[in-house]
Amino acid sequence: MTILEQFWQRSQTKELFLWAHLSLLAFLPLALVLTMAGLAVGEPLFPGWIEMPVLAIPIIAYVGWQQANRPIYPFTLGFVHRSVSHLSVLQRQILTIVKRPATGWIAIVTAVFLYVLFRQVYQTAPLAENIAPFPDSLRFLGIVWALVFFLVANVITQVGIVALRVLVLPATELNQPYDPEQIKQDFIVLGSSSPSLWQFDRVEETPDEQPKEVSSAESPTAKTEEQPQETPKDEVSAGVSPTAKAEEQPNNIDRTIPQAAPEVSPAEPPTAKTEEQAENIPPNDEVSSEEEVALPDIPDLVFTTEQQTEVKE
Question: Model's pTM, two decimal places?
Answer without folding.
Answer: 0.62
